[in-house]
Amino acid sequence: MSFTPELALALLLIIPMVAAILIPLAGKQPNIRETITLAAGGALLATVIYLCKEVAAGGRPELLLGTFAGNFEVKFKLEPLGATFAAIASSLWIVNSVFTLGYMRGNKEKNQTRFYTFVAIAIASAMGIAASANLITLFIFYEALTISTFPLVSHKGDAKARRGLTIYALVLMGTSLALLLPAIIGTHVIAGTTEFQVGGVFPPGTSLLATSILLFLFAFGIAKAALMPTHPWLPNAMVAPTPVSALLHAVAVVKAGVFTMLKVVVFTFGPALTAETPASTTISWIAAISIVLASVIALRQDNLKARLAYSTVSQLSYITLGAMLAAPAAIIGGGLQIVMHAWGKITLFMCAGAIYTVAHRAEISKLDGLGRTMPWVFGAFLIGSISIIGIPPFGGSWPKFFLMAGALESGKGILIAALIASSILNIIYLIPVAIRGFMKPPADAAADAAIAIERKKHIWVIVPPVFTAAGTLVLFFYAGGIIDFLKPILPGGLS
């Protein structure tokens, strides 16, 4: 049997699901279990690269998975935005798996087999979201992703984990059923289809009141995008182990949310209709407020993971803002932010996990002098921070440039103020972490000396963030290729 794009689409689900079956069978042999995870990651990435080449050449591979209730199709069709998300999730699954190996063993975490199993299922769900050809398919895999991460968020099994899971489940499932599902049904009723199409699916003359209502339902029903006030699930999910935090923030969950937000605007509403719909202006302002307010809240967090969680709420709203501005530059900026934020934020979370694994410190106030003992980790944190802030020559600078251009292009230049304020606040709450580590004297020199010896045992939590930090530099120089890859999602291209 020849290897075809249709087979490759099927493998997006088959590879991680086969891993999810094999991992429990090898549960008593950790080395084999983790080899299965890494081999599946490599196979999935190779498959995604093959599909990306097909899409870059103009192909739009399709695969019908099944039908139900008459003519509702569960179908895959890959286009540039979906291929970009698939590339992020598949590549960072490998990196996160290497980090997970070091973290789970280093902290002697329980239920490691269950953990690896559900991560594989979550990745399969993310692949389904990336390749969805219509809103029905996307909704199915969107919910599968939520459910598959329940055991990951509650991994610790204590009262805090149970409380975090309760909030996580109530917000994500509640918004999906009360807002997102009605939005999909409303789209089908008005447009007569749930298929994704370049330029949107609503017929000319569709009521702007109706599209405004639907846009509001989508914006707050896609709670994985963490637009305020649907964001509380995200900081509460930080009770999970750091590899879960990295998975939530960079690899799958929140990226699935903002990807869905951008995909709905581009392929369901279309940029032109979105720009005309009054709700887009209101949601733009809500996104701008979320950008600034979440950054202010981040300033007040001493726990490093909590600070990074609120930083993510802010950074995700960049993508919602870009979608609602609906100008070509803003949409490209949103697509770039999905990529650049993933690499920058996974770096920061893995650094936090490395610090906890080696030094058992979680509060920023206790990091004084630790950078001298863990220079590679704190150096990676500094680089990741600079990328998140948006300073060249790191990848995070490009999304802000395009979003600012898009704000001017859409006639909403005042919203640039939110992006500038965010960058300033990013500097205030991220850079001091590295300054404390490198510049302040250690509070306990003897303890730090012991940490210097201990870190040699934990190389697998140190290498991954250094790798992704380097990736933020490489991505700066390859942003042009990503932009060219994404251009076809715009009806008129990018001028």
UniProtKB/TrEMBL annotation:
It is found in: Cell membrane; Membrane. The chain crosses the membrane at residues 36-52, 81-103, 115-145, 165-185, 205-227, 247-270, 282-299, 319-340, 346-364, 376-394, 414-438, 459-483. One of its GO terms (cellular component) is plasma membrane. Residues 132-423 form the NADH:quinone oxidoreductase/Mrp antiporter transmembrane domain. Keywords: Cell membrane, Membrane, Transmembrane, Transmembrane helix. It comes from the Bacteria. Pfam families: Proton_antipo_M. InterPro entries: CPA3_Na-H_Antiporter_D, ND/Mrp_TM. It is a multi-pass membrane protein. Belongs to the CPA3 antiporters (TC 2.A.63) subunit D family. This is Multisubunit sodium/proton antiporter MrpD subunit. It comes from Litorimonas taeanensis.
